[in-house]
Design a protein that fits this description.
The complex is a heterodimer of chains A (450) and B (149). Chain A has 450 residues and is an alpha+beta fold. Chain A has 8 helices and 29 strands. In chain A, strands 19, 20, 21, 22, 23, 24, 25, 26, 27, 28 and 29 form an 11-stranded antiparallel sheet that branches. The longest helix of chain A is centred in the first third of the chain and has 17 residues. Chain B has a domain of 104 residues. Classes of the chains: A alpha+beta (450), B mainly alpha (149).
Chain lengths: 450, 149
């Protein structure tokens, strides 16, 4: 009996010892209640911006797929986003002019993951650069990776959400891209919704490869960079051609350079107040507060007269070849002849090849090359050619070895154009663009393959 | 009912995540292994087989076979003659860009030699017809241009 009594006393002491005597409430709320309140506060911050937000996302240059990291080109993507309290978000994107013109509505959530996170949870413009299909993402990283962009972001400012200001920092949950939300002004919002933002894609709208503007007393040239969303900026300094390359993004009526370009006498960080003039295919711009006109040119600022010869000879001496994965860009259309849709005996197109000196006698080869994971093959209609540099331009004489399909015929017709081609060494120091000297509206990019 | 709705939403969310960042779609343009065949593929077609030639000589031989009414033996000899012709031409082809006069002189000599060689296995009439196949100067899209010019 005494044992039972003792046990009861001990048990009651133990239970008394477990009695909660200290409150873990803060401001009268449990952790769950505080978390819920914080998430509501974050959502309120996002929804209570009457003009919406500009979202600018900088990728780090790495992309993760199933734990494996691939490194490559950095990029910046800019969006206009307007959140409502029904978990819907309306957005525009600078990914291309169609996404700049038509608003997209999708859904979002504010959720506690490891940190409070903003999650774009249905496919939207923000997902496009994340898309694993390179035909959609236009990513140079290859299949399965996108650009290393994110669609789930953690709030990265270590402040109470009610104290967030007009700028909110985010970090991507998968690829650690850096993003920033900046409260939009009324003028910026109107630029997106009235279509003027879509008109600021002047690097695409002006169809000439070379685009020139007099800025600060200098003639400045803009040409396409090696990858999407990169522009090469060229200028003359004491007669010598100088170049710089920068990633760019578009907001409102501006093209913004991630790395401002110093041309010796001035620094160009952006082209602002862009107004497209469809009647003469030019654009009014302002740079550092001064107005100018951006217009297409059929000639470069300075032709690299030996480039065609160097292009051929460098591959010839290295026993390498030049490869284009894109086919010709003509009159504003990528792969205008549909080279990427070609097949040969059921094997899909892989690349368009220039292989100098490979034919008996030293003639060059131009041909699509077809490959899948099992095989790689040339067609029976490879084209024999020979490149000559005449007066600083490259000219091709060519003849196919058999009847060619339409995309190859059209490509051959363009390549053998008697007006010849400018060869432009790109800012990476190894790639070349081959630009029609007829009107500079057709070009193809070449990468060395060793 | 709410739970079912939440589960549906959750699964939709997971699906959308998979589509955008995690799923491995098949390669849109296959990344070969076959990349190395961009070189070896054409090099093997350039390999010369006596009588059968290579992809260049065989294409030209096929092009002239009908107008010249070539026999099987004549086709073999034509392949060999063209291969010898182009091999010799490779020694001075770069002069086209740097010394066109010298190039023309050497081309004329070499072409005369080819025609003489053809006379060894073609009839006089066939040789005449071969010479008549000479395209106009600057003609594109004819393989015979690189024989005659």
């Amino acid at each position: 009996m005494s044992k039972i009594a003792s046990s009861l006393v001990i048990a009651s002491l133990v239970l008394a010892g477990c009695q909660k005597k200290v409150s873990d409430l803060i401001d009268g709320q449990t952790a769950d209640q505080r978390l819920s309140a914080a998430l509501v506060a974050y959502q309120n911050v996002l929804t209570q911006a009457p003009q919406g937000w500009i979202l600018i996302e900088h990728t780090t240059g790495s992309a993760i797929n199933q734990g494996a990291t691939t490194t490559g080109q950095q990029a910046v993507f800019a969006y206009y986003v307007q959140f409502n309290d029904s978990n819907q978000v309306v957005m525009f994107s600078d990914f291309d002019s169609s996404m700049a013109a038509a608003p997209n509505t999708s859904s979002y959530r504010i959720k506690a993951v490891q940190r409070p996170a903003l999650i774009f949870d249905t496919y939207s413009y923000i997902h496009v650069p994340c898309d694993p299909d390179p035909l959609i993402s236009k990513s140079p990283f290859g299949p399965g990776l996108g650009w290393g962009a994110d669609f789930e972001f953690s709030f990265a400012d270590n402040v109470d959400p009610t104290k967030l200001g007009d700028t909110i920092n985010l970090i991507g949950n998968l690829n650690s891209s850096n993003a920033v939300l900046i409260k939009a002004t009324q003028a910026q919002r109107e630029a997106y919704f009235n279509g003027s933002f879509a008109q600021s894609f002047v690097f695409d709208k002006i169809q000439n490869y070379f685009k020139h503007a007099f800025i600060g007393g200098q003639e400045i040239e803009f040409t396409p960079g090696v990858h999407s969303k990169v522009v090469d900026v060229n200028w003359l300094q004491s007669g010598a051609l100088k170049s710089a390359s920068t990633v760019y993004y578009l907001t409102g009526g501006s093209i913004n350079f991630v790395n401002p370009v110093s041309t010796g006498t001035q620094t160009i960080a952006s082209l602002d107040n862009i107004v497209w003039n469809a009647s003469n295919s030019t654009a009014s711009i302002s740079v550092n507060g001064t107005g100018s006109t951006l217009a297409g040119s059929i000639t470069p600022l300075k032709n690299d007269a030996s480039a065609a010869t160097r292009w051929r000879n460098s591959a010839l001496s290295a026993q390498s070849l030049w490869v284009s994965y894109n086919g010709f860009h003509v009159d504003g259309v990528d792969d205008a002849f549909g080279m990427a849709n070609l097949q040969y005996n059921g094997v899909p197109f892989y690349a368009y090849i220039y292989y100098p000196g490979v034919f008996t006698g030293g003639y060059d080869l131009l041909s699509p090359f077809f490959a899948n994971t099992a095989t790689g093959t040339y067609p029976d209609y490879v084209t024999e050619t020979y490149l000559q540099n005449i007066g600083g331009l490259g000219y091709f004489e060519l003849a196919p070895l058999a009847t060619t399909p339409a995309p190859v015929t059209e490509t051959n017709n363009l390549v053998s154009d008697p007006n010849g081609f400018y060869f432009v060494l790109k800012e990476d120091g190894s790639s070349y663009d081959m630009v029609s000297a007829l009107d500079a509206k057709s070009w193809i990019d070449w990468q060395a393959y060793n | 009912m709410k739970k079912i709705f939440s589960l549906v939403l959750l699964s939709l969310g997971l699906f959308s995540q998979g589509r955008a960042q995690f799923s491995a779609l098949g390669p849109v343009s296959s990344d070969p292994a076959a990349g190395s065949q961009m070189k070896s593929g054409i090099q093997s077609q350039m390999a010369y087989t006596p009588g059968a030639g290579n992809i260049l000589t065989a294409s030209i031989t096929n092009q002239v076979a009908t107008p010249l009414s070539l026999t099987a033996d004549q086709k073999k000899s034509m392949n060999d003659a063209l291969y010898q012709f182009f091999t010799a031409k490779g020694a001075f082809l770069p002069l086209r860009a740097t010394d066109s006069v010298s190039y023309q002189q050497q081309q004329s000599v070499l072409l005369a030699g080819l025609i003489k060689t053809l006379g060894g296995f073609l009839s006089v009439g066939q040789v005449t017809r071969f010479v008549a196949l000479k395209p106009a100067a600057g003609t594109r899209s004819s393989l015979l241009t690189i024989v005659f010019y």
